[in-house]
Each structure stands twice: as structure tokens, then as C-alpha cells.
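hiii, so i know i said id send this last week but things got crazy w the move. better late than never?? heres the sequnce for the chain we talked about at the cafe, plus the structure i predicted for it. fair warning i was half asleep when i ran it
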Amino acid sequence: TQEAAKLEDQLSRLVKLFEEKRGLLEVYSQLKKRGENLSEMQKLFKAAGFVEYVASIYLQQLCDHANHRFHRMTRNQLSLQLNGGSFEIVDYLNDGKSRSVKTLSGGQAFQVSLCLALALAESVQANSKANRNFFFIDEGFGTQDSESVNIVFETLQGLVKENRIVGIISHVEELKERMPISIQVEKNLETGSLIEIVQ
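okay and structure toks below
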């Protein structure tokens, strides 16, 4: 009948419009997503945004590399993590809760600094053509108890096997006695400083 034909035409037209709308919605979704990406890129490239973004990635990598040693040095008791650009400590003796690095003892703080410095040195060496890399530590051992000194010293000895030359500037007698080769400097007001190689 004429009424049925009319309804069929309306249905056909609605189906066509629905298909067009669905296609437009897909295009709109893609454009919206692209707009969000462009907006995010605009934030990144605005002022120092991109530099901060790259720095955050590099800092996270540095933290991860430092953690390999720090976790081992603390006998699996502590780990380092980033939270909003700041370092925190994960304490596994306290149910894995995080706390400020300011709560570390002097020895633990030195261990964190050492691990971060080593990670940074390794990163620099990886991007250089030199097959050896010098690493110097100026003091820092005065805050260590004897057990911590042993752990740190063993770590430094392991670095020699990694094709790295490690130098320690220290007044701690225990360390001076354990060094295989050392340069001893004695001040003399009359003749000047006396340098002696001790093996």
C-alpha cells in the first residue's frame, strides 16, 4: 500500500542518516583524540615543558639504575623511588611504606648518593667512546659504621671488574689500610707537600 511504501522510504532514509551519523561520530572521535594530543604537545613545547618531560624520563631511568645497587647494598631492605620529581625511600621492613630521604641515617644517605652517582657515571660512560671511566669519591665514609663501610667497599671493588678506575679521598684509617694502591699526601710547611705511593 501507499502508506507502507511511505513508511519504508522513511525507514530507509533514517537508516541512511544513522549510518552517516555513525561515520561522523567516528571522525569526531578521531579529531577529538588528535586535538587532545596536540594540546598535550603544546603544553610540552611551551616554555621548559619539553625539557622537564625529557628530564623526568631520564631521572626515572637514573633512579631505576641506582636502585639495582642500592637495593642490594641495603640487603633488600630499602629501595629508591620517584614521586613527583622527588626521591622517596621504600622501606620493606615497614610493610613497603614510603618515607622521605631525609629520614635516612648518614650512612644510608651516603649509600643513596653513591648509587645515584654511579648510575650517572655509567650513563655518561655508555654515551662516550672511552673504554675506561674514572670515578672519584671525596670523603663521605666518616658517617658509615663498619658494616656499611664493608658493603660500600665491596661495591667499589666490584667496579674495578666493570673496567672502572675508582679513587677514594679519605682520612678513615680502615679504608686507607684496605686500599691496594694509595697516594699518601703529607703537608710540610718548610718543604711543601710530600707525595708517596703506598702499595
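btw The chain is about 55% helix and 20% strand. thought thatd interest u
miss u guys!!
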